[in-house]
Amino acid sequence: MTRRGTAAKGAHRGGLSAADLGGVRGLAVAAHGFDACRDVDGVLEAAAQMAVDVLGADSAALCRISQDTCRVLRLEPPTDDARSLSLLATTYRADDRPALRGLIRDRASWVAHAFDERGRSVLPGDESAGDRVEVEALRELGAGSALSSPIVVNDSVWGQVSVVRGVEAPRFDADDVAAAEVLAALAAGAIARVDLEQQVRHMIADDPLTGLANRRVADQAADAALASGRETCIVMCDVDGLKRVNDELGHDAGDDLLRAVADVLRRASDALPGTTAARIGGDEFCLVTVGQARAEVTETMASTVAKFPLPHGAAISYGIASTAVMGAVGARHLFRRADQAQYQAKRRRQRARARTLPAVADPTVAVERLVATGAVAIGAAQPGVVPRLLAFAGAVTETLGGDEWAVLRRAGDGEPATIARGGSPADAGRTTSLTVARGEWVVEVAASSAASTGPQVRTALSVLLAIAVGDATH
Question: What region holds the GGDEF domain (predicted)?
Answer without folding.
Answer: 230-359
